[in-house]
Write a structure and sequence with these properties.
Layout: H1 2-5, H2 8-21, H3 25-34, H4 36-40, H5 43-55, H6 59-72, H7 77-88, H8 95-107, H9 111-120, H10 123-138, H11 145-149, H12 152-164, H13 168-182, H14 187-199, H15 205-217, H16 221-226, H17 236-250, H18 258-269, H19 273-285, H20 291-303, H21 308-320, H22 324-335, H23 345-354, H24 362-374, H25 377-387, H26 392-405, H27 410-422, H28 426-437, H29 442-452, H30 463-474, H31 479-491, H32 498-506, H33 510-519, H34 527-540, H35 543-553, H36 560-568, H37 572-577, H38 581-589, H39 593-606, H40 610-618, H41 624-637, H42 641-647, H43 656-669, H44 673-684, H45 690-702, H46 708-720, H47 724-732, H48 738-750, H49 755-767, H50 771-784, H51 789-802, H52 806-819, H53 826-835, H54 840-844, H55 851-860, H56 881-892, H57 896-908, H58 912-924, H59 930-939, H60 944-950, H61 954-964, H62 974-986, H63 990-1003, H64 1006-1019, H65 1031-1040, H66 1044-1051, H67 1055-1070, H68 1075-1080, H69 1084-1087, H70 1097-1106, H71 1110-1124, H72 1127-1140, H73 1143-1156
C-alpha cells in the first residue's frame, strides 16, 4: 500500500530497493544518484539512504550522500555522522568515507579526533588521502588575505597530516606560512598551533617559537607576548630568532612594557646581560614598576653575577622602590666586579648622591676613589668636592693622587686651593690662587668656574675665591654670574678694574641694585667708574647728579655708545631732569659733536626745548657736508625747511645735490612751491639728499598745497629711498593726471616687481582710457600682492560699465573670482554677456552656478535644455539681438517650453517686438497666445493679420472685431476681411460672424461682399445646427448678397419667414433699378438699359436667357469666364447646356471645372438643389 499510496520520493526509493533485492545493486546505486534531489525531499527517505547504501556495499557513495543529507536535514547530522563513523571500520579502504568523516571533524575543529581517525584507518588509504590533502593545499600557493582565509580548512588539514607523520615542526611551518600570508585574525590557526604545542608538552622550543610567530602574524600580540616565557630556557639559536621577532613585531605594538621585559629576558638568556640591562634600565627611567620587572632584574643578577651593570640595574630598581640599604649593597657589589670601569657606575652613583642616599659618604667615597684611580679627572674633582667640607684631609690625599695623574689641571688646583682654605691653610692656598689667576686659556677658566660654583658659601669669607671666579667667568660665557661677583666685591670695598665695572654695567644688574652702589660709598677712579655711578644715579632716581658723571665718563671715547644707548632709552622727562643743555654744549665745543649728533635727535623726538634748536644750529661735525646734512635733517624733521636753509648759511659745502636741497627749502619757505619743485626733484635723485628731499616734499603735500608735479618729485624721492609703497600712495591722489601716468610708465621699468606701483599704473591707465593697459598692469599687480585685487576689480568694473567694455568686465570678474574673498561675479558676468554675447564661451568657464547667468549662457548658445526665466540684476540691459537666434532655433525645434520662458524674458526686458514674434511662434506650435496677441495688436495694429491668423479662443475672437475694426470692416483690406472671417469661423464666434457679415454686405466693396458671400456658403449646409448660424440669419445674408432664389429656397416651409422675405425683396426691387432686380420682376428688356450692365456679365446673360436667346447667353458666360476666370460662369454655363440638351458640351465644362477649379466643386449640383427653375441654381464656391 505504501508503494501505491506513498509520496513520490517513497515510491522512487521503493523501486531502488526492489532493484537491490533483485541483485541489481549497481543499478540501484546509479538510480540513487539520478533521483537524489527527489529522494532528499522526503525526510523519512533521507533517513534510510545511507544505511541502504552501506548495506549494498557502496560506502563512497554513502559518504558523499550522507554529507548532502547533513546539509539538507541538519537534524540528521548527529545520526548520520555517527553511522558513518561506525561504518568506517567496516570499510577502512574507502577514501570518500574517510574524507566525509574528516571534513566533519575538521569543521568541528576536533583535532584529536582527526589524529584518532587517521590512526584507525588503513595506512595505504591514509597515504592516498594525504596526497589529496596535499594537492588541495598546494592549490593555495600565492593566495593571500581573505581569499586564503576562505580556504583555511585546507591549511589545517595539511598541518594535521604533517603532525600525524610525526613532524610537528613541519606542521607548524604550514601554519606559520599561512598566517604570514593571511595577516588577519584567523582564530583557527591560533587554535591548531596551540594544540600542536600542547601535544609536544611545551618542551619543543622550535614549536613554541612557531606558535608565537603564528599569533604575531595574525595580530594577536597579547597572547604572543604572554607565551614568550616558554622560550626563556631555549637554546641560543631559538633565542636569537625570538629576539628578532620580538624587536620587529611585538615591541612596537605593545602599549605596555611587557614585551620589552620579555625581550630583555630573552637577550639575557642569549648571553648578553648588559644589553638586557639597558632595556630594563629604560623601564626604570619610565617609572614602570612591576613584579615582572623585578623578576627579570633578579634573573639577570643570578645569571650574570660578575657583570657590574646588572648590579647597578638592581641598585636603581631598589632605589626607585625605596629599598635604600639593599640598593647600597647592590652598588657595593658593582664596585667589586671586574668590568665596573665599563659600566655606568658614575651616573648611577650620582643619582644616589643627588637623591640624598649616601650613607656616611659611602657612595661618594667609593666613587671618588674609583674616579681618582680610573675615571676622568674632572669627574673625580666634582665628586671629591662633595666631601671637601666633611673630610678635607682625605680629599687632600686624593688630590695628591690626581696631581700625579695631571699636575696642570685647573680643576684639581682650584679644588686644592678651596680645600686648603677650608683647612685654614690660606698661605699655601694663596700661591695656588695666584697661579690660577694667571691662567688665560678658556679651558682652565671653565674648569675654575665649574669647581667654584659649588662653593658659594665660601665666597663671603674668602674674597679671593670670588675674585678668581669673577675673572674666570668673564671670559667663559658666565657674564651674568661674573657681573654679580664683581658687584659683590665692589659693595664690600674691594677694588674692581674697568673690565669688571663694565661687566656690571653691561649686564644691567644696577637696575635693581643701583641704590646699594650709592650707599656703599663707591668712589669712581676712571671713566668706567663714572659711567657706573651715573647709571646708579639714573636707576636710583638721582637724575640731575648723573649729568656730571656722564660728562666725566665721556672722557673715554669708547664709552660714547654706552652713554648714548642709556640716555636714549630714558623718557623725555628723565632726560630733562638731567639738565643736559650745558653738558651737550660743552661736548660740541670740545669737538664731541658726534655724541650730540646721536643724542639730540633722540631727545628732540620726545619733546623740544629752546636750547635744542639753538644747539642744533651750532652743531659742528667732522666735515662741512656732515654738519650741513645734520642741520638740514634736524630742522626738516621738525617741519622747518626755511630754518633748515638758514642754519647752513656760511658753512662750506660740496655737491650740487645739497645746494639744490637748500634752494628748494628756501623757495618753499617763501611760498614758491612750483619753483621749489624743480630743485627738490633734482635733490631727490641723489643718494645723500633723497631722504631729506622726501621729508620736505612730504610735509608740503600734507599741507594741501601740492600739485601733480610735486607729487611726482616726492615719488621719485621715495623710490630713491626704496619706498615704492610710499611712492604709490603719493601718486594715487593724482592718477587722473597725464603727467603722473607718464611718470609711472617710466618708473615701472625701474621697479617692475613693485605690485603697488603696478596697481597705481593699472588705475592710471584705466582713467586715461586704456583698458587693455589696465588689464596688463592689474594682472601683474595682483601677482605680487593679491590684497589689491578687490580695489582693482571694482575699478575695472566701474570703468567697463561706463564704457560698455565687455572684455574688461570678464577680466575683472576673473580676478575677483580668483583673489577676492566673497566676490560675487554673477552680476558682472551677466553685464558682460549682455554687452557682448560672443563672449559666452569664455564667460561659461567663469560661471559658478548663478541661475541668471546660467539662463543667459543658455540663451547665448541657443540651448533650450533647462532654460528658465530669471530676473536680471538691476541696471542690466538685455540686448534684443540676444533673443533672435534662440527664437529661430527653438521655433525650428518646436521647443515650446523654452519659448514660453523666452517670452517672459522678452517682456520683462521691454522687447515687445521680440515678445510678439515669440508669441507668433508659440501660437503656430499650438500654444494658445490669443489674449497676448490681441493686446499686441491693440497696441500696434500692424500686428492685425498675425492675430487674425493665429487666434484660437472664442472670447478673444469675439472681442477683437470691435477693437480691430473700430470704424467697421467695410473698406478694410480684403485679405484682413478674409482672415477675420476665417478666425471667427475657426473660433466658432457665430454671433460676431453674422454681425461682421452684415457690416461687410452693407458697407463693403464688391470684393469684401464676396467674402461675406463666402460666410453664407460656409454656413448653408449647417444652418440651425449648434454653433452655426440660424436659418433666418442665413436667409438675411443671402438676401443681402443678392442670392434671392437661395434665400427663398431656405425660407421654404416657414410661411412667416417667406412673407418677410417677399416683402423685403419687393421693397428692395421697387427701390432698385439694378439688373438683378429687373430680372426678378420679368423685365428682361429693361436690363439692357440698366446702369453698368456691361460690367455684370451674369445678369446680361440671364436677360438674354429669359428673352430666349440661350446660345447668346451661353456665349456671354463663356466670354466672361475667359476674361475673369471666375468658376461661377462655368457653373451657369454647364447648367444651361444641360438644360438645352447639349450633354457633351456640359460634360466638357464639368471636366474643365474639375481640372481647373477642383477646390470650388462641392458635393451636390444644380440637380440636387431645391426647385428646378434657373433662378434656383446655387453655385457652391469655397
Amino acid at each position: 500500500m505504501a508503494f501505491l499510496f506513498g509520496s513520490k520520493s517513497q515510491r522512487a526509493f521503493k523501486k531502488i530497493q526492489d532493484l537491490a533485492d533483485s541483485d541489481m545493486v549497481d543499478q540501484a546505486a546509479v538510480m540513487v544518484e539520478e533521483d537524489l534531489d527527489l529522494l532528499l525531499a522526503d525526510h523519512e527517505v533521507a533517513t534510510k539512504l545511507v544505511p541502504f547504501l552501506m548495506d549494498i556495499g557502496h560506502p563512497d557513495l554513502g559518504g558523499r550522500i550522507g554529507e548532502k543529507i547533513m546539509r539538507t536535514h541538519p537534524d540528521l547530522r548527529m545520526s548520520i555522522s555517527r553511522l558513518l563513523e561506525e561504518k568506517q571500520s567496516q570499510f577502512p579502504r574507502s577514501i570518500e568515507l574517510l574524507r566525509v568523516i574528516w571534513r566533519t571533524r575538521l569543521h568541528q575543529r576536533d583535532f584529536n579526533g582527526l589524529i584518532e581517525l587517521l590512526g584507525r584507518t588503513e595506512r595505504l588509504t591514509v597515504s592516498r588521502f594525504a596526497e589529496s590533502v596535499q594537492s588541495a593545499y598546494q592549490t593555495l600557493d600565492g593566495v593571500t588575505g581573505r581569499e586564503l582565509g576562505s580556504s583555511i580548512d585546507r591549511v589545517l588539514a595539511w598541518s594535521v597530516i604533517q603532525l600525524h607523520r610525526g613532524d610537528p615542526g613541519a606542521a607548524m611551518d604550514v601554519l606559520v606560512d599561512s598566517a604570514e600570508r593571511c595577516r588577519f585574525p584567523e582564530e583557527s590557526l591560533a587554535r591548531l598551533s596551540g594544540w600542536i604545542a600542547a601535544r609536544t608538552g611545551g618542551t619543543d622550543m622550535g614549536v613554541n617559537l612557531k606558535r608565537i610567530t603564528v599569533l604575531t602574524a595574525i595580530g594577536d600580540s597579547e597572547r604572543a607576548i604572554s607565551e614568550l616565557p616558554s622560550l626563556y630556557d631555549a637554546d641560543v639559536d631559538v633565542v636569537n630568532k625570538a629576539v628578532a621577532l620580538v624587536e620587529k613585531d611585538l615591541v612596537p605594538t605593545d602599549k605596555t612594557p611587557r614585551a620589552r621585559v620579555s625581550l630583555a629576558r630573552l637577550i639575557g638568556a642569549g648571553g648578553r646581560p648588559d644589553d638586557a640591562s639597558l632595556i630594563l634600565d629604560n623601564l626604570i627611567d619610565e617609572h614602570w614598576n612591576s613584579s615582572l620587572l623585578e623578576q627579570a632584574v633578579t634573573h639577570l643578577v643570578i645569571s650574570a653575577p660578575g657583570h657590574a651593570r646588572v648590579h647597578l640595574l638592581q641598585a636603581r630598581l631598589r632605589l626607585a622602590r625605596g629599598e635604600n640599604t639593599q640598593a647600597l649593597d647592590s652598588v657595593d657589589r658593582a664596585f667589586q666586579c671586574d668590568d665596573v670601569v665599563d659600566s655606568p657606575v658614575v651616573e648611577t652613583c650620582r643619582k644616589f648622591i643627588n637623591s640624598g642616599v649616601d650613607r656616611e659618604g659611602l657612595i661618594s667615597g667609593k666613587l671618588g676613589e674609583f674616579l681618582v684611580d680610573k675615571g676622568a679627572v674632572e669627574d673625580a674633582v666634582e665628586v671629591l668636592g662633595l666631601r671637601a667640607r666633611q673630610t678635607p684631609e682625605w680629599v687632600l690625599e686624593q688630590i695628591q693622587k690626581l696631581l700625579k695623574r695631571d699636575r696642570t689641571s685647573a680643576a684639581v688646583l682650584t679644588l686644592l686651593a678651596v680645600v686648603l682654605l677650608i683647612d685654614k691653610r690660606g698661605g699655601e692656598a694663596a700661591a695656588t690662587l695666584k697661579h690660577l689667576s694667571a691662567r688665560q686659556d678658556v679651558k682652565s677658566r671653565q674648569d675654575i668656574v665649574s669647581v667654584l660654583e659649588h662653593f658659594d658659601d665660601l665666597m663671603g669669607t674668602h674674597h679671593e675665591l670670588r675674585r678668581l671666579r669673577a675673572a674666570a667667568g668673564y671670559k667663559t660665557g658666565k657674564g651674568a654670574e661674573s657681573a654679580s661677583d664683581w658687584l659683590e666685591l665692589l659693595l664690600v670695598g674691594e677694588e674692581v678694574k674697568d673690565d669688571g665695572l663694565l661687566e656690571i654695567y653691561d649686564r644691567e644688574i644696577l637696575r635693581d641694585r643701583g641704590k646699594e652702589v650709592l650707599s656703599s660709598g663707591f668712589v669712581p677712579r676712571s671713566p668706567a667708574g663714572e659711567l657706573l655711578l651715573a647709571a646708579a644715579d639714573i636707576y636710583s632716581g638721582n637724575l640731575e647728579d648723573s649729568s656730571a658723571h656722564f660728562t666725566s665718563a665721556l672722557a673715554d671715547a669708547s664709552l660714547v655708545e654706552r652713554v648714548t644707548s642709556l640716555i636714549s632709552a630714558l623718557p623725555f622727562s628723565s632726560i630733562s631732569a638731567m639738565k643736559p643743555a650745558k653738558l651737550f654744549e660743552t661736548l660740541n665745543e670740545s669737538g664731541k659733536g658726534k655724541v650730540v649728533e646721536k643724542l639730540l635727535p633722540v631727545m628732540a623726538s620726545s619733546g623740544i626745548e629752546d636750547w635744542m634748536d639753538e644747539l642744533a644750529s651750532k652743531l659742528v661735525l667732522d666735515s662741512d657736508d656732515e654738519t650741513v646734512l645734520f642741520r638740514l635733517g634736524y630742522f626738516i624733521d621738525r617741519g622747518m625747511p626755511g630754518t633748515a636753509a638758514s642754519s647752513v648759511q656760511g658753512v662750506g659745502q660740496a655737491g650740487d645735490d645739497i645746494a639744490q636741497l637748500v634752494r628748494g627749502c628756501e623757495l618753499l619757505a617763501a611760498g614758491k612751491g612750483e619753483q621749489a619743485t624743480d630743485f627738490l626733484t633734482k635733490a631727490a635723485t641723489s643718494d645723500r639728499t633723497a631722504l631729506l628731499a622726501r621729508e620736505v616734499l612730504s610735509g608740503y603735500l600734507e599741507s594741501g598745497k601740492a600739485s601733480s608735479a610735486m607729487a611726482i618729485a616726492l615719488a621719485q624721492a621715495q623710490l630713491k629711498t626704496d619706498d615704492s609703497s610710499g611712492a604709490a600712495d603719493t601718486l594715487n591722489a593724482f592718477l587722473d593726471q597725464p603727467a603722473v601716468l607718464e611718470y609711472l610708465e617710466s618708473a615701472i621699468v625701474e621697479v617692475p616687481s613693485s605690485s603697488v606701483l603696478q596697481r597705481s599704473l593699472a588705475l592710471a591707465r584705466l582713467f586715461a582710457g586704456d583698458p587693455e593697459g589696465y588689464r596688463v598692469a592689474a594682472g601683474t599687480a595682483v601677482e605680487g600682492n593679491p590684497d589689491v585685487a578687490a580695489e582693482l576689480v571694482q575699478a575695472g568694473i566701474d570703468y567697463s560699465v561706463e564704457h560698455s567694455y565687455a572684455e574688461g568686465l570678464v577680466f575683472a570678474a576673473d580676478l575677483g573670482i580668483k583673489l577676492v574673498d566673497g566676490f560675487d561675479s554673477s552680476t558682472v558676468l551677466v553685464q558682460a554677456l549682455c554687452m557682448q554675447p560672443e563672449l559666452a564661451e569664455k564667460i561659461a568657464g567663469l560661471s559658478a552656478g548663478n541661475e541668471v547667468l546660467g539662463m543667459l549662457l543658455l540663451l547665448a548658445s541657443s540651448n533650450p535644455e533647462g532654460f528658465v526665466y530669471r530676473e536680471l540684476p538691476k541696471g542690466v540691459i538685455l540686448p534684443a539681438e540676444m533673443l533672435e537666434k534662440p527664437l529661430h532655433d527653438w521655433r525650428e525645434s518646436e521647443n515650446t517650453q523654452a519659448l514660453e520662458q523666452l517670452e517672459i524674458l522678452a517682456m520683462e526686458n521691454g522687447h515687445l517686438k521680440q515678445a510678439h514674434s515669440i508669441r507668433i511662434a508659440l501660437a503656430e506650435l499650438g500654444v494658445d497666445r490669443s489674449k497676448a496677441l490681441l493686446q499686441d495688436t491693440v497696441d500696434n495694429l500692424e500686428y492685425r493679420m498675425d492675430f487674425l491668423r493665429l487666434c484660437s479662443q472664442r472670447e478673444q475672437a469675439a472681442e477683437s472685431v470691435s477693437q480691430l475694426f473700430p470704424d467697421g470692416a467695410g473698406n478694410s483690406d480684403s485679405g484682413e476681411i478674409s482672415a477675420a472671417v476665417d478666425m471667427l469661423v475657426r473660433c466658432k464666434s457665430t454671433d460676431e460672424l453674422f454681425v461682421f457679415a452684415v457690416d461687410i454686405l452693407e458697407n463693403g466693396s464688391e470684393q469684401n461682399r464676396e467674402a461675406a458671400g463666402k460666410i453664407v456658403d460656409i454656413f448653408i449646409p449647417t444652418a440651425n445646427e449648434d454653433g452655426s448660424l440660424t436659418v433666418p440669419q442665413v436667409v438675411e445674408l443671402l438676401l443681402m448678397s443678392g442670392r434671392i432664389s437661395e434665400a427663398f429656397s431656405f425660407a421654404r416651409g416657414d410661411s412667416e419667414l417667406l412673407n418677410k422675405l417677399k416683402d423685403a425683396v419687393a421693397k428692395r426691387d421697387s427701390e432698385s433699378d439694378s439688373a438683378r432686380a429687373l430680372l426678378r420682376n420679368d423685365r428682361a428688356f429693361e436690363v439692357f438699359l440698366a446702369p453698368n450692365i456691361s460690367e455684370d456679365s451674369m445678369s446680361l446673360g440671364e436677360a438674354l436667357w429669359q428673352l430666349g436667346k440661350r446660345v447668346a447667353a451661353c456665349s456671354v458666360w463663356r466670354g466672361a469666364y475667359a476674361r475673369t476666370g471666375n468658376p461661377s460662369y462655368l457653373y451657369r454655363l454647364e447648367y444651361a447646356q444641360r438644360y438645352m440638351g447639349a450633354l457633351d458640351e456640359a460634360s466638357a465644362v464639368s471636366r474643365l471645372l474639375a481640372e481647373k477649379h477642383p477646390e470650388s466643386v462641392q458635393p451636390g449640383t444644380a440637380d440636387s438643389l431645391p426647385g428646378s427653375s434657373m433662378k434656383m441654381i446655387m453655385y457652391n464656391i469655397k
